[in-house]
Amino acid sequence: MNNSYSSTSQSLPSLPSALPTALVTGSSSGFGQLIALTLAQKGYQVIATMRDLNKQAPLINEAKKAGIDMRIESVELDVTNHKAILDVTKALIDKYGRIDVLVNNAGYAVGGFVEDVPLADWQRQMETNFMGVVAVTKAVLPYMREQGTGYIINISSISGRVGFPGYAPYVASKFAVEGFSEALRLELKPFGVQVVLVEPGAYPTNIWKKGFDTIHTSQHSPYQDKLQAILSYSRKTASQGADPQEVADAVARICAIRYPKLRYAMGNGVSLLLWAKMLLPYSFLERTMIKMLGTTKK
Ligand SMILES: NC(=O)c1ccc[n+]([C@@H]2O[C@H](COP(=O)([O-])OP(=O)(O)OC[C@H]3O[C@@H](n4cnc5c(N)ncnc54)[C@H](OP(=O)(O)O)[C@@H]3O)[C@@H](O)[C@H]2O)c1
């Protein structure tokens, strides 16, 4: 990983940008790519960061097709590289003079039952999904606070509201993002910076395949049959998920709301599940989830 600022710079001005600017992490695929494109379409100068610039072609091709490639700059950034985060943020401020929107989107899902997931994988999950969000936010904050305006949009998950078995590292990382965002929102309100959580349910992006391919288990795992039941449930829900563009459109809408809510949950079945968690006895919800996931038997 290159620590210094590296981008496919197009000839953009070095004075403060006339356009509002948005920094998106994890833009090589999925929501991040769609969010970058959608914000550029809405008139933002987008700094689309990704950890491997070799993966920028789909984003750039889509941007060219839509005639908005001049408003998207791809920049290399791994959110676990804290030095690179500071370098990238400073270089962007030097170039554009402002950051109006930060979308903390980069993330991945570690799957497996708690006993089967090595500690190093728990640490890596937290490093990316939680510490990555903290580090990028901290880098951007001095500028947004000084500007007295800005949006920090953290892509959490329904897994940040409800714990699902077989995904505890992912669930823990998203619950951490939720707590962090709640506290940060109160800290930044007086400074005019809005902190928002977007909480998607299952959408058909690459995250699921990547997660299924790297699932932690073994032939002799006592959880093997339960994991298989959960995997088949997850595959079904992910493939039947709504169009991921919904999430990108929601992010663009949120950036246009002067006083957005803290949480925006979206996706098939998500509202029902959240209402059930809020209104029903928790023991009933637990029984229903275990039955639904097919993990009842010992
Ligand atoms: N899809 C869903 O159903 C769903 C539901 C709820 C929440 N989410 C959340 O949505 C966000 C985006 O996921 P997605 O569904 O769009 O999946 P995706 O297509 O796999 O996109 C994830 C992005 O994050 C990047 N990334 C992973 N680790 C990174 C790191 N250390 N530094 C920088 N970038 C990194 C990936 O880069 P590489 O290509 O290099 O791996 C990729 O660009 C994640 O935070 C995820 O938890 C997704």
Automatic annotation (TrEMBL):
This is SDR family oxidoreductase. InterPro entries: NAD(P)-bd_dom_sf (IPR036291), Sc_DH/Rdtase_CS (IPR020904), SDR_fam (IPR002347), SDR_oxidoreductase (IPR051911). PANTHER family: SHORT CHAIN DEHYDROGENASE, SHORT-CHAIN DEHYDROGENASE_REDUCTASE FAMILY PROTEIN. Pfam families: adh_short (PF00106). It comes from Paenibacillus agricola. Coiled coil: none annotated. The keyword Cell inner membrane does not apply. It comes from the Bacteria. The keyword Cell inner membrane does not apply. Transmembrane segments: none annotated.
